[in-house]
Amino acid sequence: MERKRRKLKAELKWASFLVPALMFYLAFYLLPTLSSGYYSLTDWDGVKSRFIGLDNYREMLNDRMIVASFRNTLLYTVGITVLQNGIGLLAALLLVRKFRGVNAMRTMIFMPYIFSTLLIGYVWGFILEPNIGIVNNVLDALHLGELKQGWLSEPSLARWMIVLVTVWQCLGYSMVIFIAGLQGIPKDLYECGDLDGAIGWRRFWNITFPLIAPAFTINVILCLIGDLQLFNQIFALTGGGPGYSTESIATMIYHLGFGNGVRWGYGSALSVTLFVSILALTTVMVTFLRRREVEL
Amino acid sequence: MLTRVSPLGGYIGKLLLWCSCILFIYPILLVFLSSVKTKSELALRPFGFPEHWTTESFAKALRTMNYGRSLLNTSLIAFVSVACVVIMASMAAYAISRKNNRLYNGVYLLFIAGMIVPFQMAMIPLYKVLTALDLINTYQGVIFIYLGSLTPFSVFVLSGFVKGVPKELEEAASIDGSGVYSTFFRIVLPLLKPAMTTIIVLNLFTVWNDFLMPMLYLSDSKKATITVKLSAFQGMYFNDWSLIFAGVCLIVTPMLIVYLFAQRYIISGITAGAIKG
Fold first, then answer.
1. B194 in helix, strand or coil?
2. Which of B123, B227, B277 faces A116 most closely, judged by CB atoms?
3. Could you read off the pLDDT of A242-257 as tens digits, one per residue?
4. In angstroms, rounded to a whole number, what is the distance separating the alpha carbons of residues B154 and B149?
5. Of A115, A155, A151, A119, the residue nearest A135 (C-alpha)
6. Is the residue at A9 inside a domain?
7. Is B15 within 8 Å of chain A by CB?
8. Which residue of A118, A142, A286, B30 is surrounded by the most CB atoms within 10 Å?
9. Can you give the pLDDT at residue A25?
10. Does any domain span residue A31?
11. Is B117 on the interface with A (CB under 8 A)?
């Protein structure tokens, strides 16, 4: 009896370690999030709400703005994930070597990551500004005036500018993870490879790439999770415009909830859809990427 | 790594590398250089070094942003939430990785699930929660949300780290009669210092730079944070770029200093969480 009570007491002590974090996490993050599931079935507008079943979801399918935001999000996610990991890996391969200045270089490449996206939006807004912006001025100076563009006012260009600015900002993060992965490869594997004549590209494909698979997995997954929710860069660079041409799902939810109309029920339906897409995509990708990882 | 190249090729390669690195800090240099130019000089010669240095824009930015007060607001919110999160997340991470049974692993998954939940999904219901608890427009309200939303990532990184801390010290302490709590606070917590530093710094950046949350839930202009004050510039002083950039400098500088000092920890923390986790 006494022993049982002592054991219970010890268990309760351990559980108490979880309580503070769990309490705030559940009350101020997870449970509100889950309640979106219920709100998505109502026409809640902040004041009154009525249960309307799946009407919100049905409406979404025929909403041209929503469909466009899904298409944009897909473009952003694929574009950013491919470029960020491709260039990030290249940067890591170059900067994993030891030479003078390599630490300064890594510091410089990582630096944009620490700044608020809002600030990044101002700076790039200035650089890409059509009249006094640097890009157009440089084009003028090079006598390439006909290439001048309204970089953020032409929808198809603006989307790619959002991709590029995001890659520019987050590249350092991927690079750092790739560098750690590369540093974990035992040197003797390369020596063996040398004997077998694996050099250059063959060395990269047959030795380096398979062995940094865990770093590759985590980078791709982090990109997917982050880019499917892409919000800040769009908010700061274009605000979703011109029109709704650069809107992502996340900015769409914001505009539905806090923009021109207060369609909280509809916004919730969209956020549930976004969450389910992220969950499905990450599960599929994790399974797929883990399979090609090799054990050392 | 790569095949050997001739010395000349090496030099050209390094030069190219430096040039591409400049690409990453040029926009930041641009901000600092533009902020000390006059409005008209910036319009005429947007890049290059300023001819006449002026602190005019800074003076105006300090005034319009009500910098003293808004800096205090941001610092208060950032320090309280970052300090609480790191302690709470360390406790949770410790229990999770030491108990390691089905219940605790379940809790771990519950925490990690938060990483794939988009903030936009919580955005609307949180408004309702804060209103219901009468926490809208209060510091506590915003701090509580940060405590919830920063937890998943912090627990993720910290529990990866705790797994690498040897258990022997704790076992020795418990034989000496030290209770669970005192073992944690006197022995484990000091060992977690490097990982905690990483979490503190990364969370500090997140809170410092965030503008969406304070904009939505802390609209009272006395309690507004520096980023919210700056975002108001866009509408009011459209095209006064040197003013905007002076404001940007005022926000960026404290974090730039933190970054340069804590760089080592940031990078080790990112990789620890990513590779071990």
1. helix
2. B227
3. 878 888 988 888 888 8
4. 10
5. A151
6. no
7. no
8. A118
9. 94
10. no
11. yes
Closest to A181 in 3D by CA, of A96, A111, A59: A96
Quick check: B149 and A29 CB within 8 A? yes
Q: Are A173 and A113 in contact (CB under 8 A)?
A: yes
Window 53-72 of B: residues touching A by CB (8 A cutoff) are none
Provide the number of structural domains found in chain A: 1
Let me know if domain B72-237+254-276 sits in CATH 1.10.3720.10.
yes
Which residue ranges make up each domain of chain B? 72-237+254-276
Q: Which residue of B has its CA nearest to A30?
A: B114
The DSSP 8-state label assigned to residue A267 in this structure reads H
In a domain, A13, yes or no: no
Query: What's the pLDDT tens digit per position in B222-266?
Result: 888 888 888 877 766 667 788 888 888 989 889 889 888 888 777
**ipTM of this complex prediction, to 2 decimal places:** 0.86
Q: What is the mean pLDDT of residues B140-166?
A: 89
Nearest of B38, B104, B226, B174 to residue A19 by alpha carbon: B104
Share of chain B residues as helix, strand and coil, in percent rounded to the nearest 5: 80, 0, 20
Distance CA A28, CA B130 (A): 9
- Position A262 in a domain: yes
Mean pLDDT of chain B: 84
- 3-class SS of residue A51: strand
Q: A122 vs A21, which has greater pLDDT?
A: A21
Chain-chain contact of B21 with A105 (C-beta, under 8 angstroms): yes
d(CA B204, CA B181): 27
Number of H-type helices and E-type strands within chain B: 14, 0
Give the range of the structural domain holding residue A134, as residue numbers without chain letter: 59-291
* Chain A residues whose beta carbon lies within 8 Å of the beta carbon of residue B216: 258
What CATH number is associated with residue A255?
A: 1.10.3720.10
The predicted-structure confidence for A129-186, as pLDDT tens digits, reads as follows 777 777 877 787 787 767 777 788 788 889 999 999 999 999 999 998 898 888 888 8
Provide the CB-side half-sphere exposure for A133 (13 A, CA): 18
Q: Which two tokens stand for residue A218?
A: 């985590």
Task: Say yes or no: B232 contacts chain A, CB-CB below 8 A.
Answer: no
Closest CA of chain A from B225, distance in Å: 13
Return d(Cα A42, Cα A55) in angstroms, integer: 8
DSSP A26: I
Q: Which of A246, A248, A169, A76 is nearest to B120 (CA)?
A: A248
